[in-house]
Amino acid sequence: MLAVISKGEIYGYEMIERLQEYGFTMVSEGSIYPLLLRMKKEELVTTRVITSTSGPKRKYYSLSPKGENELQQFKERWNELSVSVSKLLD
């Protein structure tokens, strides 16, 4: 989710749609919103509320500096894991 948010400010329902576009078809509101709340509490994201022209106000999420750092660390760990798995499978 941090990677999706890193591409630009996004609101909750849009996050669900974006994750589904990437192939995460089992994603639902019941799983996304608690994770967004947790990321907010851990200060990985910042939020701002914007009035919508088509419905209720929307809470937009952006990466905080701490979130950017966490994403970078995740990418590094993922690359290390990917290399190890590739070696194992070769």
UniProtKB/TrEMBL annotation:
Coiled coil regions in record: none
UniProt-listed InterPro entries: Metal_resp_DNA-bind_regulator, Tscrpt_reg_PadR_N, WH-like_DNA-bd_sf, WH_DNA-bd_sf
Classification lineage: Bacteria, Bacillati, Bacillota, Bacilli, Bacillales
Pfam families linked to this entry: PadR (PF03551)
Every Transcription regulator PadR N-terminal domain range: 1-73
Organism: Neobacillus massiliamazoniensis
Protein name as annotated: PadR family transcriptional regulator, regulatory protein PadR
PANTHER family, A to Z: DNA-BINDING PROTEIN YIZB-RELATED, PADR-FAMILY TRANSCRIPTIONAL REGULATOR
